[in-house]
Give the backbone structure.
Amino acid sequence: MSPEEGHRALLIADSDIPTTHLVARELREGFSSLEVRVAPDIFGAVVTGRPVIVSRLCFPRYSWLPDHLSREGVRYAYFVDDNFWEITPDIDVRLAQFFRHPATVETLDAFVRHAAVVLTWSQPLRDYVASRFPDIPAEFVAPGFDVAKAAALLQRHRPPTDAEDAVVRIGYPTTPRPRVSALIVPVVEHFLRAYGRSVTFEFIGWMPEALGGLPNVVFHPWIDDYDKYLEFKVSRRWHIGIAPLIGDGFEKYKTNNKYREYGGCMVPGVYSDVSPFRETVDDGRTGMLVENDAGAWIGALEKLVASPVLRSAIAEGAFDDVRRHHDLRTTGRHFADTVLTRARQVHDR
């Protein structure tokens, strides 16, 4: 029996968002049971006698919670997947108003300072936390992807083969990312001019306003339920996925989520040559890394559009890499082991 078996863990999350679902998936691989409570529902939860993980919570109205957990003898793991300290108005005006408010920063810092360990899915973010809080243990844990679920979906919605489809479908699922509009728009416009109806772009969740109404550009609303989102994404049978990222300030601390999803779903991806993709993608084998220049993006995409053999090779290479390094069954157990190990170290002092 592994060390984590038999433990009933508690996950306290900021809200019911996809990140909460993904963290819960990881923890369920390592704990025999997991209770998930979002912040408004924490009252009445038993916090003593079991592992506790707090995910992203930094709302000022819960500023009392870190001290309360400390007084109860609960040394929790604090998980954060974005660099909240570096969200500026040029990234998102609304979010910056919240995260740069002194009360939010104070609450976020308090959750970190009372934690037994801070866990991140990004090595640069782990390093940032360690430099900001040198006395608090911070660890990078590799994020996972449900390879088994994706494989089952791929059986139902087979990836496109070399001989299939007269139209090459290029996909991009994302939350609002207006800063990449200046890169995406000329790329899409080039393909519409040069390739006509033989190339289609599909967006899930957001797309640049300038592309609205253009032929061969399709927009699908965001899907909150992650299982339904993943099945819909696989069902689109994209030939290519794109992942543009500016990579400065806030963005360089993000996780390689796009790579894990594209690779796990056997979609060959084109990625901005910035962190976190620069540290993840083996250029030409598990994806294509390109500079944030429209001409470079057009060149990379044209290579993939013209070569089903290259697309297939990259899709297989990426899938094998995700299976070996990001399989949820392995990453989840490591996540849980790290939580338990740090909690024991605190109690053994």
